[in-house]
Amino acid sequence: MDMSPKDYQQYVKQKAKKSPLVKDIFFAFVIGGAICVVGQLIQNGWAGAGLDKEDAGTATSCTLVLLSALLTGLNLYNKLARYGGAGTLVPITGFANAVVSPAIDFKSEGFVTGMASKMFLVAGPVIVFGTMASVIYGVFIMLTQ
Q1: pLDDT per residue as tens digits for the range 126-144
Q2: 32 contacts: CB under 8 Å, gap ≥ 6
């Protein structure tokens, strides 16, 4: 079949299933919000256990990363992400999932060459970009004050 790129794009557009955008946005909002509510409940629990606000926030972040890694290892986080979409990516739990998932996928290649080297396959660029953006922003703030 000989098609021009424009004809091919039209063909793909005809065959592609329409994305249920409103439904996707709704579930992203609900699932992302539910993750944040769980995080708030965890923070309230840490504060109730006697931690001050800053320490409770740190303990909450660590707890959410641990829960996300555990749910990823049990293949439950991916099932949640199937419905929640971007709602599961935004909180800190999405970052933990992005680190743990490749590690699990490549564990058969060995500890160093598989798990350890592939662990930051997805999260590595995010860390680099975030670090560089914060440095550039910090220099900009320092020069403008």
Answers
A1: 788 888 999 999 999 999 9
A2: 84, 86, 87, 88, 90, 91
